[in-house]
Amino acid sequence: MSPASKSCSDGERGFTLIEALVALAIIAAVLGAIGAVIGTTVQGTRAIDQKLALSGAAETVLAGLPPRGALKVGRQTGTLAGHRWRIDVAPINAAADAPPSRFVPLAVNLRMQGPGGAQIQVTTVRLVPRAPE
User: pLDDT per residue over 29-86, tens digit each?
Assistant: First the structure.
């Protein structure tokens, strides 16, 4: 048998063009899936960074509230490091049958929006001394 008449069935080893194309298609699909996972991870990391920045700014704003004796009912607004914030302070209606107390509970509602559009809302209660009657 002459060398020109040899075929793959004669024991010659190697890949056919179809096998190589199938292998490349599988590799492309796997790399596409890996790329999608990396993209999702990057988006999640950015969202976490934004939430951490918002939480830190909210903590700073709440720490800067006046002492409980000077806290007044109403609305305050401002900006901190590019974060816009708004604080609403309102009295909480106690039950009519509640015993009298030296303190009045106030709801403090903080809404903050970051430069990227992410938002956070924090609600807390502050006890302020009751005004003398």
Answer: 999 999 999 999 999 998 898 888 899 999 999 998 888 778 888 999 999 888 999 9
Q: By the 8 A CB rule, do 127 and 102 touch?
A: no
Burial 65-80 (b: 16+ CB within 10 A, else e): beeeeebeeeeeeeee
What pTM was computed for the model? 0.64
